[in-house]
Amino acid sequence: MAKKEDATVEQKLRALYDLQLIDSRVDEIRNVRGELPLEVEDLEDEVLGLKTRIDKLKTDVETINFEIGAKKNLIEEAKALIKKYGEQQKNVRNSREFNSISKELEYQELEIQLAEKNIKEFKAQIEQKKEVISETKERLGERESHLKHKKGELDAILAETEKEEQALLEQSEKYQDEIEERLVKAYARIRNNVKNGLAVVPIERGASGGSFFTIPPQVQVEIASRKKIITDEHSGRILVDPVLAEEEQEKMQKFFQKL
Fold first, then answer.
1. Keyword Transport, does the record have it (predicted)?
2. Domain end call among 137, 167, 197
3. Do residues 132 and 200 both lie within one domain?
4. pLDDT score for 5
5. pLDDT tens across 44-90, in order?
6. Residue 174's pLDDT is what?
7. Residue-number span of the structural domain to which 86 is assigned
8. Which H or E run contains 164?
9. What is the three-class DSSP state of 35?
10. What are phi and psi of 38, to 5 degrees?
11. CA distance 252 to 138
């Protein structure tokens, strides 16, 4: 390829079309991967979320078991006090002392009942959380299996295409460095504005590639002369003649086959 400043219009058109063919090949490779990288990322996030949830539930169960232990200790303390007050009540000297101890006994009995109720509720909570843990573990197993499958798919595609994609990206950068900056910017702008990423297209059946708008014969002659860069007035795409396109396609196809 000639230097930027010395290149003829035809050389610029060929370089731009070659760049388009390279970038289109990269697009094809990425389309093959499709949504797989995002699917894998989403699955990894979901698996991490499920693991975090299981850890939290297990911590909750440990906390509740600690609370149950505390309530059991409270019951034992209350029973010890009941025994103590029971002995004291046998030796009371008047009804006031008897009533006072009776109230303490009643209070400790209520403490035991409340603690037992709490323990029952705590145990119910543990059962519920264990059930959720079991369900979450089952879900985690499914998601991990699905993730492994999707990762396998992605790794297989990457193994097939990663080397080629990297070589193409390097070649794309090389071409961009050798093309005038204003043309590279125009090319990038057009590529970003069209759905299929085609910024440079050949004339096909009297219309620009992928378009139904006919190009006037006089304009077609100008394009074929390769004396100036012409864009499609409808899509803004840079136009090249079919012969130039076919020649560059054959050249680049040989390059792609070597990758």
1. no
2. 167
3. no
4. 62
5. 999 999 999 999 999 999 999 999 999 999 999 999 999 999 999 98
6. 93
7. 36-167
8. helix 95-178
9. coil
10. -70, -40
11. 51
